[in-house]
Amino acid sequence: MNKPVTLIISVFTMVFSLANAQKNTTSSDKCYIYLTFDDGPLNGSENINTIILQEKIKISVFMVGEHVIKDKQMDTYAKYYDENPYIDEYNHSFSHANNHYESFYSNVDKSVNDIVYNQSLLKLLYKIVRLPGRNMWRLGEKSKNDGASGIQTADQLAKLGYKVVGWDIEWQHRPSDGTPIQSVDEMYNSVKNLCSSDKTFTKNNVVMLIHDEMFQKTWEESELKQLIDLLRPDSHYIFEQMKFYPQ
Ligand SMILES: [Zn+2]
């Protein structure tokens, strides 16, 4: 082969492999963040709806049917969620186990029926469920349990075609006054570290459990806004809804 042709080929190969390397770095470089809110609708859901419309950030809410049918106000909040294009609604059971988890999960059929009933009552579009009081996962071949109680319920739901999802990190609050336990910087650093670690259920995907207390303060003063403002300018982080969670 003559020299100029060899040169052209090697330059071409170099450019091609560079372009490929670039592509690979970009795709594995992204980190998907799922902001998830449990137990709604509750007082404060109206604020969540307004803020999300204004901020245009995709979030996921895990709904409790018993709260929806409690009164007209809550039904209205649920309708706001239905109409909000940035909010996706998923299943968090009808009764929330009446907060007696051990006894709820000891009767597998009863707990499964409670969740299946919630699915039809709320006409939920996706078979995605978070078990009340449990951080359990069933996604394809992958699964995770946080204890023994609830395992059979999760398995049964998976058989019925449900994706059972938990969370990777929880932003905790003091029950007394709702102030967050982890500071904004702590949360920011945790998310950053989780994004590049093997500690999440799926690599490069961070599911965050957030509580409604975040919406007690005005939005401008809230810690959640501060965290979002830190993450959003960095194109490395992408806010996504649970229906897009990989499996
Ligand atoms: Zn809950």
Automatic annotation (TrEMBL):
The keyword Protein transport does not apply. Residues 29-122 form the NodB homology domain. Residues 1-21 form the signal peptide. It comes from the Bacteria. GO terms for molecular function: hydrolase activity, acting on carbon-nitrogen (but not peptide) bonds. GO terms for biological process: carbohydrate metabolic process. SUPFAM superfamilies: Glycoside hydrolase/deacetylase (SSF88713). It holds the Pfam family Polysacc_deac_1. Keywords: Signal. PANTHER family: GLYCOSYL TRANSFERASE-RELATED, POLYSACCHARIDE DEACETYLASE YHEN-RELATED. This is Peptidoglycan/xylan/chitin deacetylase, PgdA/CDA1 family. It comes from Chryseobacterium polytrichastri. The lineage of its organism: Bacteria, Pseudomonadati, Bacteroidota, Flavobacteriia, Flavobacteriales.
